[in-house]
Structure formats: C-alpha cells, structure tokens
Write a structure and sequence with these properties.
This protein is an alpha/beta fold. Helix content is about 40%, strand content about 20%. Strands 4-3-5-6-11-10 form a six-stranded mixed β-sheet, with helices on both faces. A five-stranded parallel β-sheet has the order 2-1-7-8-9. The protein is globular, with a radius of gyration of 21 Å.
Length: about 375
C-alpha cells in the first residue's frame, strides 16, 4: 500500500537509526508538536529505538487536551439549558470539566449528540428549527476550514438557530510559548504535518530564525518520525537553524490556499487560554464581528467561569514538555482512561492516554 507499508519498513528504520547514531555527538532534546506523532512514537516504540543522547518530549499538540477548562465548563452550562441540542465530536464527551463531563450530562438528560462534521450540526439545526443547536468547535488549524464552512453555510442558508462555541487554537504561538517557558530543554521540533498541510510552514520560519531552533515538518508514520529526527539532529549538529520539510509528499510551503482563504473569511486571531499552559497571546481564532450572531458565547449568557483543576494532575507540565506521564503520581492509578483526571488521559492523542494504552503504566520508573 503506497505511503503506508513503506513507512513501516523495519529495514529502512534500521538504516535511519544507524545514521542518527553516526551523526549524534552530544545530547539533544526534541519535541514532537502533534499528538498524532506522540501516539505513533509510543505505539511503535520510536523513542526507545533512538540512541540515549536523543530524548523526545511531548508537546501541546492534542487539541482536546489544550481546550481550556473554562470553555469546557461553558460547554456544560450551555448543554444543560432547555431547548438546546449540543453537538460535538465524540472525543470531547469524556473530557473532564470542573465538575462533570458531557457524557454524564447526556446520561442525566441533556441533549448531547455526536456529529462527524460541523455541517452535520447545521443540518440538525435545519431539522429542529424550534431548538438551538450549538456545535463545540475545537481544534487546531486543521479543523478551522470545516468550522468556517459550517458558519458561512448556515448564514447563506438563513439557519438562525445554529451557533458555535469556539475554541480554535494556533500552533506557532504555542511553540513560542514552549521556548519561552522557564526550564524548557527543547532544542529542536518535529513540526505538525497535518496543520502545515492546511497552513504551510512559512509561519515557522521566523520562529526558527529568532529562537535559533531547527523545525522539521514531520509526518506520522514511524519512518517519517525517525527521518524527522535525523533531519533535526543533522541541523543541530551543524549549528543550523531553519525549517525543513520532511513531509513533502503532503505539505508545501504555502499550504492550501483555498482553505486559508476560507479560514480568514470567517475567523480573526485572538488571545486564547490553553489548558495546562495558560494564556498565549494571539494563539486562537474567534468568529469575525459580522458572524457574531453565530457565536454561542454571544448568544448565551454563560459569563466567566470559576474553574477547578485536580491538584494532583500534572498534564500542564506534560503539555509543556517539562514532565512525562510516568512522572505523575496519579498516572495509571488514580488517573486512568476510565477515570481521567486530566484531558491528556482522555484523548487518543493525549500523551497520558498513549502511554497507558501501550502499557507504560506497568513499568518501573527510576526515582
């Protein structure tokens, strides 16, 4: 199968690993940005294949994990309202808020529905004109075009009972926040392949130049990731700081022009809170003023929320690459996929969920 089997070929992996060992002369800490990359790394044991000098740490690349607790609590408040159908992707239903989650609210009688695309929520609004349909618009730049399309389509069709609770975030400011974080050890990045498919990678070039870090746009299969590591280590060893594109079979420097036009026709850049990270300037998207009637925060008076994170949860430090899941005292005991304390244990792209799924909670970790 093209673009699958050849990117899981053990013989190719062995050759790349040998080259990584050959070129590595000192320790380097790299961060993979995307949660899909984290999942692949843990599933295939890529981090264990690498020489001891190379450490991979996990970044804030899981959109479910970084959705701010305040937005989740607002989602719960809206879902509880009579006459509301609250629509969401399935991966948000078990994300814990301060008190509950959407799945529990559904069991208590709230009309919470799983949809597979934002346009499904628009269709729900057309089918139920007597009710308010709210879609939870979560994600990085990858989901922004579909969310923008849903809003523009709803306005074009005159669907007035549809709105979005927006929690769109942008990756480049998050990378900057990681680099500015006290205690950060990251010296290079495996860049987010899916995000760059939409946006291109021009935005990463000033970051690489200003902070003097290499950023290698990387795919998601084991060979992709190993090759991305090799590209990054070569740049570090040579003292070069630029953006390279390992994922060239999918990503171009300019990205998808039509998708970008659609995003900017509906959204503006805004400051945004990230769960576990805090507020990052100009790191989010909000609906433009002319689409304010489709903004659920404008339509429903949910106001500011007092939030409460479990004190023992270390997901914020994990998202910033400062800790790993097995460093958390609750990991695999008080916090499991069945009883998650933090979002990193809920989402399939979360680092804690990936570590748990592949048995790393059973391992003894040296103090």
């Amino acid at each position: 199968m093209r673009y699958l089997d050849e990117y899981r070929d053990g013989r190719v992996a062995a050759k790349i690993l040998a080259e990584i060992r050959r070129v590595t002369t000192r320790p380097w800490t790299l961060m993979e940005v995307c949660g899909g990359q984290t999942h692949s790394i843990v599933k295939h044991g890529v981090d264990r294949m690498l020489p001891g000098e190379i450490e991979l740490v996990h970044g804030p690349g899981c959109p479910v994990c970084v959705t701010p607790l305040e937005q989740i609590d607002k989602a719960h408040a809206i879902a509880r309202l009579p006459g509301v159908i609250f629509a969401s992707f399935g991966d948000m239903l078990r994300v814990p808020g301060s008190q509950t989650d959407l799945l529990r609210l559904k069991s208590e009688g709230a009309d919470v529905r799983i949809v597979y695309a934002p346009l499904d929520a628009v269709r729900l609004a057309q089918e139920h004109p007597e009710r308010q349909v709210v879609f939870f618009a979560v994600g990085f730049e990858t989901t922004a075009p579909a969310n923008a399309l849903a809003v523009s389509r709803a306005r074009a069709l005159g669907v007035e009972n549809f709105s979005m609770l927006v929690s769109q975030v942008l990756v480049p400011p998050a990378i900057t926040a990681v680099l500015q974080s006290p205690g950060s050890r990251v010296r290079g990045f495996l860049g987010p392949g899916h995000v760059c498919t939409v946006m291109g990678y021009r935005e990463y070039e000033p970051i690489a130049a200003h902070y003097r870090v290499p950023i290698v746009i990387t795919g998601f299969e084991p060979i992709d990731i190993l090759d991305g590591v090799l590209h990054t280590v070569r740049l570090l060893e040579a003292g070069e700081t630029r953006v390279e594109n390992q994922y060239s079979r999918v990503v171009s420097r300019m990205g998808n022009a039509a998708a970008r036009r659609l995003i900017w026709s509906v959204f503006d850049v805004c400051d945004r809170k990230w769960r576990g990270v805090g507020a990052i300037p100009k790191s989010g998207l909000r609906l433009r003023y002319e689409f304010r009637d489709y903004d659920a925060e404008h339509r429903f008076d949910v106001g500011a929320m007092e939030t409460l994170e479990p004190a023992v949860c270390m997901s914020g430090q994990i998202l910033r690459g400062l800790k790993k899941p097995h460093d958390c005292p609750a990991f695999g005991s008080a916090c499991t996929p069945e009883r998650p304390l933090g979002a990193t244990m809920v989402s399939a792209e979360g680092a804690c969920a990936a570590y748990y799924a592949y048995g790393r909670h059973h391992e003894q970790v040296a103090p």
